[in-house]
């Protein structure tokens, strides 16, 4: 039976895809049948034939070394680097929950550990005009716990606490926080992490430095976060 976890962040460009790649790589190197999934992906380039390249999925695939085809990784791909609700308003092909669920089900039938990445932060609107779908609706529909990715630097206390409080109030289980762009020995970043743990009661799972190629976490602990 497959297990999964959702990767969200305190905002966009926080490093969700980078950390997700390291997570999937850790599982792959441990011999696990790991896969990646994302409901909607914005800000993608086009191939010579005009088709869109799912950039985040391609990054995770290359980083982790998994053999999962790109076509299985994301049902909705947009060119404009906007929230999916706005990108689809401009480009068409709005997100439908049933399509997301079907794609996820297909991945679960083939792989044991599914790491699903969100779009933007926890409040990202996925569809608005045709249906009202928020990112949290997808998490609820697929019944996943989450890991929060946060930057270790200035301002993270506010963004982490607000994200955690929102998720708690909306019954979105949190397994822990991974801090990205961490500089060992930096007094402010170490204090940020301490204060985030103190103010939220959520534990730190790992600290990722810039250009890290491995995630510093015990693989059995990592596997235990999936449900």
Describe this structure as you would to a colleague.
It is a single chain. The protein is of the alpha/beta class and 227 residues long. The protein has helices at residues 16-29, 55-64, 84-91, 97-110, 135-142, 156-169, 187-200, 219-224, and strands at 3-9, 34-38, 40-41, 76-77, 113-117, 125-127, 133-134, 146-151, 174-180, 204-207. The chain has a six-stranded parallel β-sheet, with helices on both faces. Strands 3-4 form a two-stranded parallel sheet. The protein is globular, with a radius of gyration of 17 Å. The relative contact order is 0.19.
Give the SSE map.
Layout: E1 3-9, H1 16-29, E2 34-38, E3 40-41, H2 55-64, E4 76-77, H3 84-91, H4 97-110, E5 113-117, E6 125-127, E7 133-134, H5 135-142, E8 146-151, H6 156-169, E9 174-180, H7 187-200, E10 204-207, H8 219-224
Parallel strand pairs: 1-5, 1-8, 2-5, 3-4, 8-9, 9-10
Antiparallel strand pairs: 6-7
The total of beta strands comes to: 10
Distance between the termini: 10 Å
Oligomer classification? single chain
Structural class: alpha/beta
The tally of domains stands at 1
Topology as a string of helices (H) and strands (E): EHEEHEHHEEEHEHEHEH
Largest sheet: 6 strands, parallel
What would CATH call the homologous superfamily?
Answer: P-loop containing nucleotide triphosphate hydrolases
Beta percentage is: 15-25%
Number of helices: 8
Main sheet: which strands, in order across? 2-5-1-8-9-10
CATH architectural group: 3-Layer(aba) Sandwich
Assigned CATH class = Alpha Beta
CATH topology: Rossmann fold
Chain-averaged pLDDT: 98
């Amino acid at each position: 039976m497959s297990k999964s976890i959702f990767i969200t962040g305190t905002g966009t460009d926080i490093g969700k895809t980078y950390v997700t790649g390291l997570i999937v790589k850790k599982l792959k190197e441990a011999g696990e049948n790991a896969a990646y999934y994302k409901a909607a992906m914005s800000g993608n380039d086009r191939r010579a034939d005009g088709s869109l390249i799912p950039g985040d999925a391609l990054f995770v695939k290359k980083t982790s070394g998994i053999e999962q085809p790109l076509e299985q990784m994301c049902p909705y791909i947009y060119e404009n680097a906007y929230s999916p609700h706005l990108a689809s308003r401009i480009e068409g092909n709005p997100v439908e929950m049933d399509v997301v669920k079907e794609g996820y089900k297909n991945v679960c039938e083939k792989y044991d550990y599914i790491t699903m990445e969100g779009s933007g932060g926890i409040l990202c609107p996925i569809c608005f005009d045709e249906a009202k779908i928020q990112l949290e609706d997808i998490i609820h529909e697929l019944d996943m716990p989450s890991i929060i990715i946060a930057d270790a630097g200035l301002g993270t206390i506010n963004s982490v606490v607000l994200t955690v409080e929102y998720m708690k109030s909306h019954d979105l289980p949190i397994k822990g926080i991974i801090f990205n762009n961490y500089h060992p020995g930096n007094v402010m970043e170490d204090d940020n992490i301490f204060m985030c743990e103190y103010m939220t009661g959520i534990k730190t799972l790992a600290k990722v430095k810039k250009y890290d190629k491995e995630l510093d976490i015990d693989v059995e602990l990592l596997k235990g976060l999936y449900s």
